[in-house]
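Submission sheet (multi-component)
Chains listed below:
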Amino acid sequence: MENSELLKLEEFLPYRLSVLSNTVSRGISAAYVDRFGLSIREWRIIAVLGRFPGLSAADIVKRTEMDKVAVSRAVARLIGDGRLERSLSDADKRRSVLVLSGEGKRLYDQISPMAKNYEERLLKCLGSEDQDRLSDILDNLQKQAIALRPSS
Amino acid sequence: MENSELLKLEEFLPYRLSVLSNTVSRGISAAYVDRFGLSIREWRIIAVLGRFPGLSAADIVKRTEMDKVAVSRAVARLIGDGRLERSLSDADKRRSVLVLSGEGKRLYDQISPMAKNYEERLLKCLGSEDQDRLSDILDNLQKQAIALRPSS
DNA sequence: ATAAATTAGTTACAGATGTAACGATTATAC
DNA sequence: GTATAATCGTTACATCTGTAACTAATTTAT
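Outcome: structure written.
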């Protein structure tokens, strides 16, 4: 018989979250992002700028939970690929002002509905009550995970 | 007023899963894994071998959802650090037989309870009903995410 | 019995990532 | 007003990661 004290990886919440998140991210990449030559991070930046044009890199950091170096690199590539345009803030010459280019907007308009559709199909396995419950649960877990961080 | 058609990243399930999983993984790393000089992947291998001694690398792949290359590399490092011991299967000389060394067992015995404790504190933000519900929901989402994979 | 196909695991290479250090600009303190 | 500190973003470096190619052992087919 098995010792019930042993940690069972397949029931361990952090592990399950990691596996699920990876499966989902890969699914999205394979379905919608790879074929446009976008990384997940680039796609996230497109997504926030599609909704909030003119954000600075630091604003994107706050909105995406990405590291500032990761944002810097992804933005540099997006600009290089003609998907973003950057100018400098008049008020603060350190701050960038980022907007989607025409090409970037087209990407956003194309990928956005696909992403929503993916989410819809993913959530289809849950009843609407569970969908709502999941949302609350994720909020609570996120807050708790932050509270458990050593730095907190 | 805001266009409700726009994709809101902060409500987008794949994004929320990714952020939560990262926050949790980092929390665990910072709290229990970093200070033993283990990566998350090394820790996972320790965890499965603590419960199932004698697995092969391929068995670990199946049990951890890790890539075989990632397993190969993590196992090599664990052996180099004296935390694992490897022998070859008699029946099939390609297969490795992996077991924790004394040092590996001590790590397992030390980290396992800490990991469980972390999970417990994380889940404390949910009622017991929500905890059960979450488990079911994650199972369903995982199956659905696999079903939505292009390769499926 | 032998050739072809499959499996286990490693290696090689390119690209991604995290951390720390950095230059430039702005804010704060005195 | 000047020195100090904080902020914005980039660069450098080491490490990690994924994909594909590879060797060795085993299985399958004939």
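Remark: The mean pLDDT of chain A is 94.
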